[in-house]
Design goal:
Layout: E1 4-6, H1 20-24, H2 36-43, E2 59-63, E3 66-71, E4 75-77, E5 83-85, E6 96-100, E7 117-121, H3 132-144, E8 148-151, H4 168-180, E9 184-189, H5 205-210, E10 215-217, H6 221-232, E11 236-238, H7 242-252, H8 255-270, E12 276-277, E13 285-288, E14 291-300, H9 301-307, E15 323-327, H10 333-346, H11 348-351, E16 354-358, H12 371-379, E17 386-390, E18 401-403, E19 406-410, E20 415-418
Parallel strand pairs: 7-8, 7-9, 9-10, 10-11, 14-15, 15-16, 16-17
Antiparallel strand pairs: 1-6, 2-3, 3-6, 4-5, 11-18, 12-20, 13-17, 14-19, 19-20
């Protein structure tokens, strides 16, 4: 088991499964436990616990679907659904409670077919009148791929609540309705924004597990990808959306590039074979050489950092051996440095195998502090390949980065390939 992280020692556990002795008999190892005492407690789970534990022994219970370990105290599972301390003590400040998350298996959506319904939805920001044309052009792009297209009701010019298309509860209700509707086979975000954090606790995760669908978008939508992937295993389609992607960047791209992207996106959504090499461009740069393979995970860097401070944090084991991709819009170069430091302190940078960095957009201070130097400064002696200035995110048009899908990254050769399909039959 991997990915042990601290949590509150006072939370009440749910009913313990009767199979806990068998779980305890499995060897347990974790590289993420820094405390020697905690490591000893974890390794004590190599053997079943005795029927009558004594103070200081390892104890285990199940809470919220996770296996929890209490070290430094004699807490013991109570099969009636609670927990008790056989030594008569209370879980105090010195009690270390650790949670071992069981990562869900990769959940691929069903491949789209000609005539399937794709819905464009306002999952975050509003639709200004100036961008109505972008939505109309997005409809044409998706229809050109062979799909039926519909606009969700909240996607209306002039509809707005503060900086959002609607209140978080309204957006969540519409998203959940789309997730539960069997006719809807994919959802394309209209735009990014600052709203997804407001409805993470309102998402119907069971609807996703029951009928996984591609959700396309980046920026604020990358937060949705991270959380849905962490909670359900859903492949997240970090890719273009209506504004300014399909309806803006695509329209301004040279005809050959647009044709290349249309073919790539159609294959991504419909083909159950691996995509292979993504189309490279002269902007790609090798910032640190090397070649690795691992699952893709990432998004806009501020969301990667901020989500780790919430109950929806991505378990650290999701970063083990992964190819981390990220990009950023706006702010200052120092902000990027700080977000990378957050990932360093949280252990993310110690776990990843490689990194892909998107083309920065509207970030002040990069003339004095080039992005490559900032990245390598924070990485220090971590010898992982880094490929920079890749078209992912706000610089667009976007190359799709399906979260959870294995990729082959060769920074020196400046290549990036998708080794597995993003959809299933």
């Amino acid at each position: 088991m991997r990915g042990v992280r601290s949590t509150s020692a006072s939370a009440a556990p749910s009913r313990l499964e009767s199979t806990w002795p068998a779980m305890l008999s499995r060897p347990v190892m974790s590289r993420s436990v820094r405390s020697g005492a905690a490591m000893g407690a974890i390794l004590a789970a190599d053997h079943p616990l005795p029927d009558d534990p004594s103070p200081g022994r390892l104890c285990l219970y199940v809470r919220s679907g996770r296996m929890c370990v209490v070290a430094g105290c004699a807490w013991w599972p109570d099969v009636r659904g609670g927990r008790k301390c056989v030594a008569g003590c209370r879980a105090g400040a010195n009690t270390a409670l650790m949670t071992v998350s069981a990562s869900p298996r990769l959940l691929r959506p069903r491949a789209l077919r000609p005539g399937d319904l794709v819905v464009i939805a306002a999952l975050s920001g509003p639709l200004p009148s100036a961008y109505e044309r972008n939505v109309e052009q997005t409809v044409a792009v998706l229809q050109g791929m062979g799909f039926r297209v519909r606009r969700a009701p909240l996607l209306q010019v002039g509809r707005q609540r503060w900086w959002s298309a609607a209140a978080p509860a309204e957006i969540a209700a519409e998203l959940n309705g789309l997730l539960r509707d069997p006719e809807v086979r994919a959802i394309v975000a209209s735009d990014g924004g600052q709203t997804v954090f407001g409805y993470l606790d309102l998402i119907d995760f069971e609807a996703i597990r029951a009928d996984p669908k591609p959700i396309l978008g980046y920026s604020d939508i990358s937060l949705l990808h991270l959380v849905l992937h962490a909670r359900t295993g859903l492949v997240g389609f970090h890719a273009d959306m209506a504004v300014p992607g399909f309806g803006g960047h695509w329209q301004a791209a040279p005809a050959a590039r647009r044709a290349e992207l249309e073919k790539l996106y159609a294959r991504l959504l419909t083909d159950t074979a691996a995509i292979g090499a993504l189309p490279a461009s002269p902007s790609w740069e090798c910032w640190r050489p090397g070649r690795v393979q691992g699952p893709l995970i990432g998004g806009v860097i501020n969301r990667i950092a901020l989500v780790q401070a919430t109950p929806f944090a991505v378990p650290l084991e999701r970063f083990d051996g992964a190819v981390l991709f990220w990009e950023e819009l706006g702010g200052h170069a120092s902000y990027v440095w700080s977000y990378l430091q957050v990932m360093r302190h949280s252990g993310i940078l110690d776990r990843i195998a490689g990194m892909v960095v998107g083309i920065p957009r509207d970030i002040a201070g990069l003339d004095e502090s080039p992005l490559a130097e900032i990245v390598l400064d924070v990485l220090g002696d971590r010898d992982i390949p880094v490929l920079g200035n890749v078209e992912i995110g706000h610089a667009g048009p976007n190359l799709p980065m399906p979260v959870g899908i294995r990729a082959d990254l060769d920074a020196q050769q400046r290549t990036l390939s998708l080794l597995d399909p993003a959809v299933a039959r």
